[in-house]
Amino acid sequence: MNFLDISLIKSLIGIAIVIATDIIFEFFIFKKIRNHKKRARAKVTLRYVLFVTIIVILAKIWVEGFGHILAFIGFISAALTIAQKENILNLTGWLIISLRNSFGEGDFVQIGHHQGFVKILGLFYFTLEEVDPKWGYRKTGKLVKLPNSIITLQPVVTFNHEDFIFHEETVIIPFSISYAHVRQVMATIELGLKEYLITIEKTYNTEEKRLYDKLLKREKVSNPSLDIKFEQGEVKGYKLCIQFYSLIKDKKNISSYIRNTLLETIQASEQPLLI
């Protein structure tokens, strides 16, 4: 057999091994990952790794001497480092994001003073749909394009739509309103909010319900949790703290419900309600 025949056979064997690896992971490994988004990320990461692997295998088979490849790669890398430093850093950032599953499209990300939902994740840049946390993480309509290299320079806070996040709403009620009235407001809010959260819970899919039950069991808390503190700053009064866990998509509606219920419950009082 000549060099061409041997190289073809080796190439086919290498490709077959890579395909077999992908099939094994698809049917025996990925099926164990319940989270759909994490499973999709794992598949993408594996296929990038397999793609690079098959390129290296084919290069080793068809190029005389693997040492020449390393020398060639070293030469190209040196040239690119000088001419395309930013792109290399961005590509490195993309590899970190992909291999470590830092975040993916649809996830909420906060990097520095930028925060929003990842709309596009590319090789060199990712795009955020900017949100305003003061308005229940409502999208502002602005798109923010950031280089992937930013994740190596600044801390990243991220969570996806399937994560339950801790939230706290606070309201200061003036001391001029009786403590008994404040307790009544608190009881009304707690009862109504529990019923409202139960209504939302009924909309969860199987995976969300499992994660929600696991969270409450792990944290050993009730949802919601209410407490009264005393505010002695510039604005003095009873500080009503309302804490709850929810999906980020439900946070805006829950906050609106709390505020509306507060206003309706305390409307008999002429004292201002500071939120």
TrEMBL record:
Primary location: membrane
Keyword field: Membrane, Transmembrane, Transmembrane helix
InterPro entries named among the record's database cross-references: LSM_dom_sf, MscS_beta-dom_sf, MscS_channel_2nd
Pfam families: MS_channel_2nd (PF00924)
Record carries keyword Plastid: no
Localization in the cell: Membrane
Domain Mechanosensitive ion channel MscS: 88-152
One CC-aspect GO term: membrane
PANTHER family: MECHANOSENSITIVE ION CHANNEL PROTEIN 1, MITOCHONDRIAL-RELATED, YNAI-RELATED MECHANOSENSITIVE ION CHANNEL
Protein name: Mechanosensitive ion channel
Organism expressing this protein natively: Candidatus Berkiella cookevillensis
Organism phylogeny: Bacteria, Pseudomonadati, Pseudomonadota, Gammaproteobacteria, Candidatus Berkiellales
